[in-house]
Amino acid sequence: MSAPATPAEQGTQPVLALRGISKTFGAVAALTDVDLDVGPGQVVALVGDNGAGKSTLVKVLAGVHAADSGTITFEGRETTITSPHDAQDLGIATVYQDLALCENLNVVENLFLGHELNRKRLDEVTMETRSWELLRELSAKIPTVRIPVASLSGGQRQTVAIARSLLGDPKLIILDEPTAALGVAQTAEVLNLIERLRERGHGVIMVSHNMADVQAVADVVCVLRLGRNNGVFKVDEISSEEIVAAITGASDNVVSQRASRRAEASTTPKEG
Amino acid sequence: MSQLDTPAPVAHDRDDERLVGSDGLRGAVRGTVDRVRAGELGAVPVILGLVVICVVFQALNSLFLSSENLSNLLLESVPTGVIALGIVCVLLLGEIDLSVGSVSGVAGAILCVLFVNKGVPGVLAIVCALLVGVGAGALYGLIFNRLGVPSFVISLAGLLAFLGLQLALLGSQGAINLPFDSTLVKFAQLDFVPQALALVLVLLIAGGLFATGFLNAQARRKAQLSGASNQLLLARSVAVLVIGLIAVFYLYSGGGRGIGWMFVFFLALVIVMHYVFTRTGFGRSMFAVGGNEEAARRAGINVRRVYAAAFILCSTFAALGGVLAAARLAAVNQQSGGADVNLNAIAAAVIGGTSLFGGRGSAISALLGILVIQAISNGLTLLNLNSSYRFMITGGVLLLAVAVDSVARRSRASSGRA
How far apart are CA A257 and CA B133, in angstroms? Predict the structure, then answer.
């Protein structure tokens, strides 16, 4: 499936459009004039080296930091996001890398944490039914929802965290390094999950360092470098090396040097 | 047994092939055994402990299990038990309050000063005493939330400060007696539930247990989830009924005065707090904050408010415990709430199965734990051993309980139940 690079090409209104977002911390410009578009049912991979501004951008969207300048257009309307609450109300859900699950609570309790149904007399039955519906929809492989999250695997926990973000029926889901620290099978599980989010029509921003994952599920790659946009690419038109080049800012860098050395090494015997 | 009716559709929460079946009575028993093995000890160690204590003390002094002594023991356990209920609230958050003893002493002193010396109506005096508890908790919560001082240090400071306040309130006199004909003292010393009413209460509790379980299982089945079988619910309620009836008949026979109203009051508090902890959003947020504060904050829980509420609940229960202790003794003196009250309350909560590390515990633990503590103290008194031995033995039991908690925690971690 090849998705168009920008929502404009898709002919639909973008879920989120950022224009000229800047953010400084004291003397450090963390973000300078950053643009970003996410359409419905589109997975945008946000890549960049350490300190490129990915986390800051995520935090601006999640309402942890407010942008200093620039406009945020959400579903066609210009808005400001000043608190995590604003972001949630708009329909932006963020799944942080540490997942923020309570290990002593079970899956249902974690899914509905802070948004329990009927807080005076918890409606456990409805909460459990809705948990199962949600997990089914995501084809999640969780045997029982009545065990503490502590006994789940990393992939299952990621699933619970993502499922929780879906409860508020968000338009845009931000995943911060969803596959970091996961095994091969679990990574595949989470990537399947991201594809299912796309099928459901959610816009997805995925922060990742893993080029294989980016190539596997993203439609569009947005590269940040030193707090600035350094290119937006359609995934099926760009190679991993080109993404790395955009991330590091040149084709002459440690990564590509290493790659070319290896390429030489593997081709030399044939020539000789 | 094998009547073939229409094949029931598999419940939503039961259709994963990896699930090991645990339906019906046998499944429930096996499930419990598995949980205990995995470090989910629950009330098992404390009930075993109670049995051992009873056997040992009965062997040493045949008066221990007499109905008279037991009905006295139940009443005696209430003031510290109420304080332990408050301790559970802060322990659930992984915090501690070391000042509950002093706060209870101050509350008792205020009650007596207002009621006896100033002639304030009893109810108003009790309300004032409780308000001191609310105030102390609110202050702790404020300092904890705003300044980030560890609760250990705040309450240690509170322990000294409130002890000083208690001494100042009592003045040079050092002790104030409550009149024996006051309702409060009667409530704590002389008012016993009539036997017929006690039987009705037991019936109500067993019936209520079955009814709530049955309705809950019904609602779950209706939503195509697995519910507890009627067999299991019935077995549970019958067990409660039989034990309750035996207890009532025994306590009212052979010179026993039966069950005091104050103990019934304590039971009611335990049930209310059990509901709050397990069935309300507030209780859920307490467990969440105790388990992972950052996760709770990100889930939109007002973490500061939860901390403040827990400290207020704890100090208010401590004040209530102080009022009841004053009523039980019909006096308040400089030793009220001192000595071992603090540690007994904390020990009771921990012995009952509330973790010192936060995030796990129950209201029932305060009840079970205080029964253990009180049984030991009562048994040693019957043996005419003075308080030096009582302190040493209670200290040993507390250490044992915390050790069990720590070991259980490790075994939970290794079997993935954290």
Answer: 70
